[in-house]
Amino acid sequence: MSTSITAPAGRPAPSRGSSTSQTEAPRPITGKSISVGRRVRNTTATVLVGLAVLVAAVPLAFVLVYVVSKGGGVFNLAFLTESIPISSRRAGPGMGPAVAGTLLITGAATLMAVPLGILAAVYLNEYGQANRLAAAIRFLSDVMAGVPSIVMGLFIYTVWVLRFGMSGFAGALALACLMLPIVIRSTEGVLRLVPRDLREASTALGARTSRTILTVVIPAALPGITSGCLLAVARAAGETAPLLFTIGTVRALNPNLFEGTNTALSAQIFVNAQLPFVAAQNRAWGAALTLILLVLLLTIIARIISARFTVR
């Protein structure tokens, strides 16, 4: 005996296989559905963020415009390559020894700080994540990051310069001490972003921890590590106070890092800016522009490397 289902009048009969209770599709969120209070808070937060960006950008723009207007008149190829005049009253180029000294001292500091900082970050993140030694290293790294640069220069002056004299190596030591905490903290932060699944997959294939770090973890984090190291180099290149206590304020380049005084752009800015002669002050502005362009170049390279090689 067959039975038939009849729908009430005015309602269609439900089809076979269809559910009698159907859920309505979610309505899209429109401007009218957002409450007035939420829109006011959103607009207020947007305005405050824009004002904060403006407050940070306006002083930077004024500094850049002023330095370019003052130093652009003497900035040229001869300024970057020719020697510093013996007489401070003499007009003209150059800052060649200071440019070479900056690259030499900063390069030596990079060779000391970057490998040591990367090794320390690898230990903190991969081996001693929660032991007391790792906690002590993190604490000391944070303290070093907050130490004023002049204090670091006085430390190297007491430990090294009073025993062995001023030298480019002493300046490199001071800059390396300033770079080290930046490299450690930035590298450790990047290593934490590497997925744990990659480490576990490498371990499951039989690789040791050291091989996993060298072939899996570090290559995955290399763009961020490179970016952090270049930013540390950019900060060290513009330091003045540590170099005044370690390399002196001479005008000539000394290629020997371990003996004799040396020069750098920041030291020449400090010396020439204090002199009453127009030529010396112009050279100071030109050196300031050179240093800003050097730091800007390193920052751009760091951003390009981070954006180009980051795996998305």
SS-based structural class? mainly alpha
Overall geometry comes to globular
Going by CATH, the homologous superfamily of the domain at 98-309 would be MetI-like
CA-to-CA gap between the ends?
65 Å
Radius of gyration: 30 Å
Low-pLDDT ranges: 1-5, 17-21
- Helical stretch tally: 11
* Main beta sheet strand tally, sense and closure: none
Task: Write structural notes for this entry.
The N terminus is likely disordered. Helix 6 crosses helix 8. The protein is built from eleven helices and no strands. The longest helix is centred in the first third of the chain and has 36 residues. The chain is mainly α and 312 residues long. The chain has a domain of 212 residues: MetI-like (MetI-like fold, Orthogonal Bundle). Helices cover 69% and strands 0% of the residues. It is globular. The termini are far apart.
Which descriptors apply to this entry?
single chain; 312 residues; mainly alpha; MetI-like fold; 0% strand; globular; disordered N terminus; Phosphate transport system permease protein PstA; membrane; transport; MetI-like
How is the secondary structure organized here?
Layout: H1 36-71, H2 77-81, H3 96-127, H4 132-146, H5 149-164, H6 168-192, H7 196-204, H8 209-237, H9 241-246, H10 265-274, H11 278-309
Domain ABC transmembrane type-1: 99-306
Region (Disordered): 1-35
Subcellular location: Cell membrane
